Amino acid sequence: MSERVIKGIVLKSFDFQDFDKIVTIYSDKFGKMSFIALGVNKPTSKNMYSLNSFSFSEFEIFKSRSVYSLSKLKTGRLLESNLGLTKIYNNYLFASIISTIMLQEQHFIGKNYTIYKMLEKSINNIANNKNPFSNLVWFIFYILKFLGGEWDLSKCYVCNQKNRIYRRFDFSNYGLVCANCFDPSKEEKQSVEFIDYLMNLQKNTFNSIFHEKMNVAYEIILLRVLLTYLKDEIGIFSKSIDELLAKEIYREKEFVEYTYNVLTN
């Protein structure tokens, strides 16, 4: 094993034997990885605070040379506790959904500094209650690119033509419908502002979207579509996702009515 110093966000940890933990982080140098923290559950351990869920820490580890064996923690230094997540339950739920995505997907095993910075920024903003709902929506939307499931909002999904006038976003096919393919006898035209909002998301990046004007009403709609997409198309499941989808606004009848009122008025 070689000794390395890395930074990372703790995604999950669980007790192992009497005093040890197995910890999974997303790191700046190796992407998603796990290591064993020996003796960390002892009252005298100086490493325990660096291993709390969602904390941002610097770790000195003995890096395993094989992906099939665990690295070993030497020391951990807490940089940011993100304890604000324990004060507002919804924010904790948002962070848990982000953690679920990172834990379940094999795409995140290799190093990707862009993903690392997205994760760090979103968790930190949610913990500090800085537009937490928007941060969750933006993180999921932009992480789709790295999951191989990015939506193409640059063209009509029906005719594949670009630079068209679009009439609606199809929630079942996750694409825009142009004026030529739109059927007014079967479909409701959606607001131009909503279509522009979606196209603006595609034009931006996770970092640049923070400079754009937010629209919470549109984000409420988009989040349900994104979570459904994660479950049905990507195959990501968790209690935290189900709990959020169980909220009143996302129940089928209420969501259909809310969406209709927001997008067609």
TrEMBL record:
InterPro entries: ARFGAP/RecO (IPR037278), DNA_rep/recomb_RecO_N (IPR022572), NA-bd_OB-fold (IPR012340), RecO (IPR003717), RecO_C (IPR042242). One of its GO terms (cellular component) is bacterial nucleoid. Keywords: DNA damage, DNA recombination, DNA repair. Coiled coil: none annotated. One of its GO terms (biological process) is double-strand break repair. Residues 1-74 form the DNA replication/recombination mediator RecO N-terminal domain. It holds the Pfam family RecO_C. SUPFAM superfamilies: ArfGap/RecO-like zinc finger, Nucleic acid-binding proteins. It comes from the Bacteria. The keyword ATP-binding does not apply. PANTHER family: DNA REPAIR PROTEIN RECO. NCBIfam families: reco (TIGR00613). Involved in DNA repair and RecF pathway recombination. Belongs to the RecO family. This is DNA repair protein RecO.
